[in-house]
Amino acid sequence: MSFLTDDKLVIIGAGGMIGSNMAQTAAMMRLTPNICLYDPYLPGLEGVAEEIRHCGFQGLNMTFTDNFEEALKGAKYIVSSGGAPRKDGMTREDLLKGNSEIAADLGEHIKRLCPDVNHVVIIFNPADITGLVTMLHAGIDPRRVTTLAALDSTRLQSELAKHFGVAQSEVTGARTFGGHGEQMAVFASNAKVAGKPLKDYMGTDKLTKEQWEEIRTKTTKGGANIIKLRGRSSFQSPAYCSIEMIAAAMGGAEFPWPAGTFVNNDKFQNIMMAMDTKIGKDGIVTYNMPEGTPEEMAELEASYKHLVDLRNQVIEMGVIPAVEDWGTINKHFAK
Q1: Whether pTM exceeds 0.70
Q2: Which of 35, 132, 287, 317 has the most CB atoms in a 10 Å sphere around its CB?
Q3: Backbone angles phi, psi at 45, to 5 degrees
């Protein structure tokens, strides 16, 4: 069996539950034989590497290290879950300062050790901001960094499928955009259930206003619900979706969900947020603006404003410079 590429893929935070699941998923999907696992906690990391070896994947040359420089040197693809996890009662934003500093350090290492990286996926929270910080400090093309936003859309799809009693794949066009957090914008106007527009059910006994609001709440608070149910933050779903994302950048199947991407247009400026994206086989991301009802677009505007506030807090912390000075750390923003 062949691999998509022989290029080096680095999984950061591989000793944790998300990272170890990413490692196994990447091996199962046969992305590359050249997978390097990094985590500062060596015993746990070695345990993950041993487990992967015990799977007996053919042709896999998996390595592991607790040396950041050794891990990143020559990397062409990076997926990082290497931030502090969210705990019960915490919001993603509660992790802002510490994880932004981790993201800045990651970016600086990328700039020094693998400036020609093809694509980077950032999934540690608040992912929109940590992705932005990583990209700026790495000095790379902003189109080569994506963040995990797909979970919000898959959670919306899941809730709709459960409500209507259909297979999850029969719910199409269910999307969320904007921030990866409870301030996300939920778009239902283009969704279909078993081929029928969702809007045709709304306001009927099949989907009352109260039921729809409950579905929206379950979607926006999906991550918090996992913490309550399992006693820890999500790990299987972010691991799978993030490896699907990097697989698309490595030449694999197209990623079917929204990804967080850098946006700078006449409506939303200098921010990372979920759009209608395509992760190209060259590692470059393109996007289209979402289309929705006036109410949905207003939600998207509110989500953007929330992200701007978080970005400005990180600027005030000194983790990244003011927007007009981004060119001092990333040549792609030089005027």
Answers
A1: yes
A2: 132
A3: -65, -45
